[in-house]
Amino acid sequence: xxxxxxxxxxxxxxxxxxxxxVEPLLADFILALQTEIPDAQIGVLVLDTAGNTFRHAIxxxxxxxFTDKLVGNPxxxxxxxxxxxxxxxxxxxxPDVASDERFADEWKALFHQHGLTxxxxxxxxxxDGHVQGSIAVVHPFGQPPNAxxxxxxxxxxxxxxxxxxxxxxxxxxxxxxGELEHRMRNxxxxxxxxxxxxxxSHPEPDQFRRVLDQRVLMMQRAHALALAPAEMPLSTLVDExxxxxxxxxxxxxxxxxxxxxxxxxxxxAMVVHELGTNAAKYGALSQEGGELxxxxxxxxSDDHGPAFSLNWQERxxxxxxxxxxxxxxxxxxxxxxxxxFNGAAAFAYEQAGFSCVISAPFxxxxxxxxxxxxxxxxxxxxxxxxxPRTSASRAYPGASAE
Length: 402
Description:
The structure is a single chain. This protein has helices at residues 2-18, 23-34, 64-67, 82-88, 105-113, 147-201, 205-227, 234-242, 262-281, 328-341, 370-386, 388-395, and strands at 41-47, 54-58, 92-94, 118-125, 131-139, 232-233, 250-254, 258-260, 291-301, 305-315, 344-350, 353-361, 367-369. It is α+β, with helices and mostly antiparallel strands. The strands form three sheets. Strands 2-1-5-4-3 form a five-stranded antiparallel beta sheet, sandwiched between helices. Helix 1 (2-18) runs parallel beside helix 6 (147-201), helix 6 packs across helix 9 and helix 7 packs across helix 8. The radius of gyration is 27 Å and the shape is elongated.
């Protein structure tokens, strides 16, 4: 075991040092692991950045017709085995897939199609306790790994977690680099548009320079919001990101007080900036008289629990039409929302104007309402008041507890 770990630790360091893809390393890792359990088909499933799906499924001994089916499916704590292993942090054994009620019929058919009957899913847990993926050991019926092989699997899973985490970090960096490149392209176009609109409203040289400087500073602030995650009220974020356009257009925002979590604030800053940039280039913020209405809300249902929705609606702009293909901006918007708080965006290109609806579960990953803050503050105050040690220290400052 020590030689196995040392060898692949060295390989992992080399891969990380040069920024190389980790998939070939994981494939070699699995093949070496299979020598310890020769009768099994072993694979690794790597979580995506948000931890909602598996973004890679690597099974060197199985065809793509099997592994491709494992990628992109939402992870559930109640279905399958690898998803359950990830959500529970514990190995999940499936002696017979065909009779296991945790597997849907389509998955039973997939296993049967490839002659697979039984498996064990082992979570790949990093040293900080976060699960990064799963090792799946598909074994012959009635022949699960023995105690020694299971011990080897657990040790290998810890190293696998390190490699999977690096793979997920690579994904985040790729998204960020793509977003920065996209922003740079848009920046020059947006600056030109803002300068032209400013000149129309403020033709005097001194006034033009002063107003343009202010708007450029606001654009800089919008970029900074997306790159420095920090808690922020949703209303403040929208105001700051759209401030370069407020002088020339009617922009209305409404909704309950919501304090966004750091990652959610960064994602929404990117999304609002992208939507604002497009509106300034093609939509309601590109011509005089344009209007933008933004409204957000939270709801609750017995079936789906608390939910969040933000509606972006443009009016009195030029005629819009759906793009011929899905561009980078569309992919970035949904990717940022999904990774930050399991959100999604739906776009509509209607005669009245462009609109976008952002929806997501209203969870701690997204943020909290003012009412939730007030409830938490009241609970903390109640606990503080009920603590006899706290009461004593308030009544007798400096007194020591006996």
